[in-house]
Amino acid sequence: MLPTVEINPKGPVTAVVIWLHGLGADGHDFEPIVHELDLPPDHGVRFVFPHAPHRPITINGGFVMRAWYDIASPALDGTVDEKGILESERQVEELLEAEIAKGVPSGRIILAGFSQGGVIALGLATKRRPAVGGALVLSSYVALPQHLPDAQDALPLFIAHGTQDTMVPYALGERSRDLLVEKGYQPSWHAYPMPHAVCGQEIDDIGQWLSAALASNPQPG
């Protein structure tokens, strides 16, 4: 199973956010964001930040770094490492199943990810049955449109992108949003005047969205 960094609430765990980092980062990357989200203590959220495996990245001359899949060229919607993406989805699903085994229902688990991590979070969230409680997809895109199923549930989706993003172009984010809509999803779309990054307003919006998503799917019993 993937190694993780975990931040637990002071009280009982009743919800989980599994948050995936981007290319070349690790599970510590979004660790500082937890206190900035200002979530109510009674949400009982455990944050799980996995470390992606080390692998050679073609676009970086084969340099080995933490990554959820290989990238061959700047054209992210060109040649895609389908095998690597699906394998990472499987590994993250193992983490999800482990949380369910600890007593947290699937509907109280949110999948989140930045850039590459967003690809994995979105891919798994749209295919997972029973459905998860939602997905946070930051500065990312739909990498495998052929694997994107039609919407079967009212899956809460928070999709955010920087209008100045040159790593994952803003236009690619817009196309991914439009594809989700065509498939019957109703993503909450957020655009920010920023590059390939996360900004303060975005963090505030994520906190509000997370609170609403968890409140709409309360702990059974």
Structure write-up:
The protein is an alpha/beta fold. It has five helices and nine strands, in the order E-E-H-E-E-E-H-E-H-E-E-H-E-H. The strands form two sheets. A seven-stranded mixed sheet has the order 1-3-2-6-7-8-9, with helices on both faces. A two-stranded antiparallel ribbon has the order 4-5. A hairpin with a 5-residue loop joins strand 4 and strand 5. Helix 2 packs across helix 3. The longest helix is centred in the middle third of the chain and has 20 residues.
Quick one: how many beta strands? 9
Low-confidence stretches: none
The helix/strand class is alpha/beta
SSE run? EEHEEEHEHEEHEH
The CA-CA distance between the termini, in Å, is: 30 Å
Features:
alpha/beta; two-stranded antiparallel sheet
Q: What are the SSEs and their pairings?
A:
Blueprint: E1 4-7, E2 15-20, H1 33-36, E3 45-50, E4 54-57, E5 63-66, H2 82-101, E6 109-114, H3 116-127, E7 134-138, E8 157-162, H4 170-182, E9 188-192, H5 200-215
Parallel strand pairs: 2-3, 2-6, 6-7, 7-8, 8-9
Antiparallel strand pairs: 1-3, 4-5
Helix pairs in contact: 2-3
Short description:
By secondary structure, this protein is α/β, with parallel strands linked by helices. 29% of the residues lie in helices and 21% in strands.
